[in-house]
Each structure stands twice: as structure tokens, then as C-alpha cells.
Design goal:
The protein has 464 residues and is an alpha+beta fold. It has helices at residues 3-23, 45-48, 67-83, 109-117, 132-136, 207-219, 256-267, 285-338, 345-374, 379-415, 418-452, 458-462, and strands at residues 30-32, 35-37, 42-43, 50-57, 90-94, 98-104, 122-126, 145-146, 162-164, 175-181, 185-192, 199-205, 225-229, 232-238, 247-254, 275-283, 342-343. A 6-stranded mixed sheet has the order 8-10-7-13-14-9. A 4-stranded antiparallel sheet has the order 5-6-4-16. It is elongated, with a radius of gyration of 31 Å.
């Protein structure tokens, strides 16, 4: 074996070992110094159940949607999805006014979507113009008008120390002054009142926000500063003393769930444009699990048939190709877990199709080898010429597949066709690995074969 082949053999062994490490179900991941990487198999909603929704800008159809606003809205929706704790979620812009959201495993999709599409404008509103009786007549969630108008900014969290109970029903007609918006919030989190044990929302302001808050609370001790979200009153606490450190709490009738929902909405900002749900598709967990089981079964049956065919038809090279295909599967699955790639039914189809590409490369090489054997070439000559003459066909076919995959990926990203996007991604990754296994792994295995194979009966061992 040449030194080049020896180096390639070492490279293949290292790659296989690393791939097996990543593929192990309980792999600990890599945690070295400041680098931390866990490996996971992500499954899409068509395999584990969940919801897919199409959100659209809730503005007149003739109004042009600013591209920057749509990109910002997509990012905010994605942050909110992550804040909800939904695993393997997919959020992507589709066209110039729509966003596709996939929430695998989500058990309460309606509530999740409600959080995602809320505008989330948080305001600290001066209620000092109200009398005590008017404040007491104001109910929680009452709608008010503020001089911040319809403008929308990045928002987050809220307000002060103690909250007075408010219990009436009528919306207030005056326009109230907005002291500060949630754009001045630096951090927001769920907390509990140490005395009562009830849930509240703690917040920390930016330096600019802290100055505004300090100046206002110093001049309005005893007044009411309401916390208003999307023009609805959340709570109306009285300023007990000047707040100079830029920290405070929003207290109210919160449960653990409602407090977390509000924090998610406020932490990740307000949407620059309102969104509405125009389409929703739900996949039950039972149907998703059934799809996964059938896909795995079909893939395993097909894999076994292919392995048997290669071994029976191509004999010794076929067995080498079978080993290369197994290595191909190990490496490709490791890449899916490393990135990680969210696997859907379409993604599995792309992977299985790329397996065919890996076999095609081996078949081209083996058929060229047969031709060289029939021409009277030695084993070494047949192998070298087989690879050399098969390479142009392998190269051209895989380049064509990668170009097609790129076009499909662009289409899926642009128009929100996540099925097409998943298919093209797994196909492209699989094709690239298939080229490596065909030209490196199979070649190294054939080099090893030449070291031990001494028979001249090529017809028997190579199926000539």
C-alpha cells in the first residue's frame, strides 16, 4: 500500500470513529474549554406531531411591506418561539409578507400562536390625572389611549413595587401620557414575591431608562404609574418611593404560566408589523409516530435489499461497496446530528435518494473495472483505470444534483416550502458524503483488498 493510501486509511478510520461517537444515542457531546457542543437528532412535526402555521402581515394588500420590517418580525417571532421552549422549531420568511412557523411537539398551538402574533407594545403610563375613584373603577385588561399613539417599538417588561387592585369595567376615554416604553428594558424575568409567594415579573432598565425612571418616580411619589401592554392595563401600582437603581417588578394576578408567557412576549420585543394567522395545519403525535415508524421500516427494508443486490451481482467489490454504504450512512447521520438538521419525511426521502447516488458511483467504478478485466488488465490496472475513467461521469452527475439541490433550497427558503427545503438539504449533504465514500473509502478498501487477494479467477470474484 502506498504512503498516500496509508494516510487516507488513517483519515477514514478517524472519521468513522468520530461519526460513531456522534451517532451514539447517549453521547456526552464535546465540552473542551469554552467549546460546548451537544449532539441531537431533531425530528420535524410530521414525525413527532405539532403545528405548522402561516403568518401574514396584517395590513392592506395594496400596502408595500418593508423588507427590513419583515426580517425584524421574523427574527422576533423566532426568538419568541425559542422562549416558549418549543424544540426543533422552524421559523422562516416566505415571500415579502409571510412567515412560516413550525412547532414540533407543541401541545397548545393556539396559545403559542397567540403569543407569537401579538404586537407586544409595553408602556409605562402616567395615571396621575385620574382620581382615586376613577382608578378603582378601572379593571385589569381595560383598553386605554396613550400619547405614544400607534407607534411600535422593541419592548420588554414592566413596573414598580406594589399593585393596587382595580375592579371596574369601562374603558377610559382620556389620552394618557407614556412615560417610557419597553424599549428601555434591559432584562426581564419571572420572580416570586418573597412575602406572599405569588408570581411577579422582575425587570432591569438600561442606563437611559433608569434615568427616566429615577426622574419620574422622584417627582411622582404616591401617584399611579400603570403598566400597559398593547393598550391594555396589566397592573396599576402606586409609586411608594423613588426608584433610583433601574430595577422593579410588575405585580398582578399572575400564574406561573401567564407570567412566563408575558416575559417571553416582552423579552423578545414588539413586532414592527402586526401579524395574522392565515393558515394552520396540525399533526397529531400518533400520526407523527406512525409516519416515523413506517419510514424507518421502509428505509431498513430498502437498505437490506440494496446490500444483498450489490453482494450477489458484483461479488467481492459488491461486499466492499456494502461496507462503504454503511460507512456513508454513519457519516451522513453524524453530520445531521452535528449541524443539527431537522429530519422530516421529505428529509428522509432526500437522504435515501443520496444513498442511491453513493451506489451509482460504486456501480460506475465497478462496471469500468469489469471492462478492464475483459481487456486482459491486471487487478491493479483494472482498479486504477476503473477509477480514472468513471470519475468524469461521477463528477458531472453529482454536480448536477448539487445544482438542483441549491435551486430547490432557494425555492423552499423564498416561498416557505419547508418540505422542499428539507429535502434539498439532506440530499445535498448526502451527495457530498457519497462522493467522499466512493472516491476515498471504497478506494482505500480496494487497496486493502489488493494486499490480500491473490486469486486470478476474476470471473468468480468480480462477476465478470
Amino acid at each position: 500500500m502506498s504512503k498516500r493510501s496509508q494516510r487516507l486509511l488513517i483519515l477514514v478510520i478517524v472519521i468513522i470513529g468520530f461519526a460513531i461517537f456522534i451517532d451514539l444515542p447517549n453521547t456526552p457531546g464535546i465540552h473542551i474549554g469554552g467549546f460546548n457542543k451537544d449532539f441531537e437528532t431533531r425530528l420535524g412535526l410530521d414525525l413527532v406531531g405539532g403545528v405548522q402555521a402561516l403568518l401574514e402581515a396584517d395590513i392592506p394588500a395594496e400596502t408595500i411591506v418593508d423588507s427590513e420590517s419583515m426580517r425584524a418580525a421574523t427574527g422576533i417571532v423566532e426568538n419568541r418561539v425559542n422562549g416558549l421552549g418549543v424544540s426543533e422549531a422552524v421559523v422562516q420568511q416566505a415571500g415579502d409578507r409571510r412567515i412560516v412557523v413550525e412547532l414540533p411537539g407543541e401541545t397548545d398551538p393556539e396559545k403559542a400562536l397567540e403569543t407569537l402574533q401579538q404586537t407586544g407594545l409595553l408602556e409605562f403610563v402616567d395615571f396621575s390625572i385620574l382620581s382615586e375613584a376613577e382608578i378603582m373603577s378601572l379593571e385589569n385588561n381595560a383598553t386605554i389611549k396613550t400619547d405614544f399613539g400607534l407607534a411600535e417599538e422593541v419592548l420588554d417588561t414592566s413596573t414598580i413595587t406594589s399593585t393596587e387592585s382595580v375592579t371596574a369595567t369601562n374603558a377610559i376615554s382620556p389620552t394618557f401620557h407614556t412615560v417610557m416604553t419597553g424599549a428601555d428594558l434591559k432584562n426581564v424575568f419571572v420572580d416570586t414575591n418573597p412575602q406572599t409567594g405569588t408570581y411577579q415579573i422582575g425587570f432591569e432598565l438600561t442606563s437611559d431608562g433608569a434615568k427616566i425612571f429615577r426622574d419620574y418616580t422622584s417627582e411622582h411619589v404616591g401617584d399611579i404609574l400603570a403598566i400597559v401592554l398593547d393598550k391594555q392595563v396589566i397592573s396599576a401600582p402606586r409609586i411608594q418611593s423613588a426608584i433610583t437603581d433601574g430595577k422593579g417588578v410588575i405585580s398582578g394576578d399572575f400564574t406561573a404560566e401567564s407570567a412566563n408567557d408575558l416575559v417571553v412576549q416582552l423579552r423578545y420585543g414588539s413586532l414592527p408589523i402586526p401579524l395574522k394567522v392565515v393558515e394552520i395545519r396540525t399533526v397529531g403525535p400518533t400520526l407523527g409516530q406512525d409516519s416515523l415508524t413506517k419510514s424507518l421500516k421502509a428505509g431498513m427494508i430498502g437498505f437490506i435489499i440494496v446490500i444483498l443486490f450489490m453482494a450477489l451481482y458484483y461479488r467481492l467489490p459488491g461486499l466492499i461497496a456494502d461496507i462503504a454504504i454503511i460507512i456513508f450512512a454513519l457519516i451522513t447521520f453524524a453530520i445531521f446530528r452535528f449541524i443539527p438538521v431537522t429530519m422530516t419525511l421529505a428529509g428522509i426521502a432526500g437522504f435515501l435518494l443520496s444513498t442511491g447516488s453513493a451506489l451509482d458511483a460504486n456501480i460506475l467504478i465497478f462496471e469500468r473495472m469489469k471492462e478492464e478485466f475483459r481487456a486482459g488488465k491486471t487487478l491493479r490496472q483494472a482498479i486504477d483505470l476503473g477509477w480514472t475513467r468513471a470519475w468524469p461521469s461521477i463528477r458531472d452527475s453529482n454536480i448536477a444534483t448539487l445544482i438542483t439541490s441549491s435551486i430547490l433550497f432557494w425555492f423552499g427558503s423564498t416561498f416557505g416550502a419547508t418540505i422542499v427545503k428539507g429535502f434539498s438539504l439532506t440530499l445535498a449533504l448526502g451527495v457530498m458524503v457519497s462522493v467522499f465514500t466512493a472516491l476515498v473509502v471504497t478506494r482505500v478498501l480496494m487497496e486493502l483488498l489488493m494486499l490480500v487477494f491473490k486469486s486470478k479467477d476474476y470471473e468468480k470474484w468480480f462477476g465478470i
